[in-house]
């Protein structure tokens, strides 16, 4: 991340310039690529309107990139203060009075891998607060610098420039390095400790966090994302249904058609056991394990061990015997047994959706990962813009305030107010369409 004092001095100089240059700068900040700028330049020339030169465009782009990074730092600092206050109110502090936070972590790359090609030139990872649902820390790793690469190809020494290459390892190791760096510096930077984190099934990240030992007398706890655990279960069940060496084709088609029912049964068991009153957490975990292991029997018609809440209609046909004879039931139970081993995480009923939401904003800002923004600093600036958009929901307003210490015009305010109102309506509509199921009245 950039030096805050350096960029504050840059912004102080820029705020003293005439207003027409501010408008000139803000008009072009959203251009996604130099080729698009050239396209607009041709349109302006046809209309006999002067446009920027390439040199001016790059200069203005650098100024706005600086401003995005400074604004992102300010937004993340505000979020850390909010999370710190909430932790102190809950009494979630260690013996030294340092707040203990629960965070959500994940990373993404600048290009799609399609599960085969992990060769992205840049990657980003974020640490999001569970309570505030906002980004606390973001880090970017770049393997490439176009200035250095061109000089190296010609056998020359590169000209003096600001190099953003900061990673020499593999692309797949970027996420773990950023997250470990955030954990080890959390006390120094923000005065907090990340005691628990919610993540996907990537065990490499957790191993590196444990190996780094970021905190004295505190072992970081990992909570598995419910959505990732259930998705992995469904993928394994679909693989069983597609395996022609196991069971009759009719039974495999039946198994494939019941994957969603199995997931739904597990989800409802999690909700019930989580809300169940007058039980300790360990008792809830043991009950959830039993419910998960009973799911295949319930779905395929055997209700002898079903809890009263688990099913009502017990008249469906029983396929358990034929599934057991074919060997399919044993395979299904192996998958469910693997899932039940994560009952301690499942009972928390938490997911990494908020950090996935941030990743989707990054993807939108880099053109759906279809355009290469990894040559210089463009990728890093766009990740910082995504932080501002995710945390504040009013990115242009925040950028303008950061650059010029004044509010933007009424057009921008009305536009962002309409977007906020639309998001509120969509959220309310989704809640009405998908109301939460409650088993116990408060």
From TrEMBL:
- Residue ranges for the region (Disordered) are 410-442
**InterPro entries from the xrefs?**
Mutator_transp_dom (IPR049012)
Q: Give the highest taxon in the source lineage.
A: Eukaryota
Q: Pfam families per the record?
A: Mutator
Q: Where is the Mutator-like transposase domain?
A: 43-311
- Bias (Basic and acidic residues) ranges: 413-427
Protein name per the record: Mutator-like transposase domain-containing protein
Native species? Araneus ventricosus
The upper taxonomy is: Eukaryota, Metazoa, Ecdysozoa, Arthropoda, Chelicerata
